[in-house]
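Hi everyone,

Forwarding the result from last night's run.
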Amino acid sequence: MENQGLNLFGEKFMKEVRDASFKKMQWLKDGQAKAPAALLLQEQLKRFTDEEQAFIFRLIKESVDETIFNTLFFFEENQEAIEISVEGQSLVELSDGLAGELFSEDGWIAKYSEVD
């Protein structure tokens, strides 16, 4: 059975954390950076071939997803000290494995993220 609170958290987390993390990469790739530090990265990125850039972005994507997984696992493992609630219910208790909500074919990434 689907849980609205869990899905609400998953949707917001994917859009406001995961997808937001990838927007900067896309700006750099598309040459749309404006901040001085980002402009430097953008110039450095141009030195790589398309294939090398694709690898870099894949590596970053894997790192972001692993960080999200580890963050969710951290909340599970430390639920006694750190509690996150959604609509008055403990987020960890709404799931049978919070970090596992990410990766299945009907998980949060597949359902809510705009980035494959």
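Residues 50-77 form the longest helix (28 residues).

Cheers,
N.
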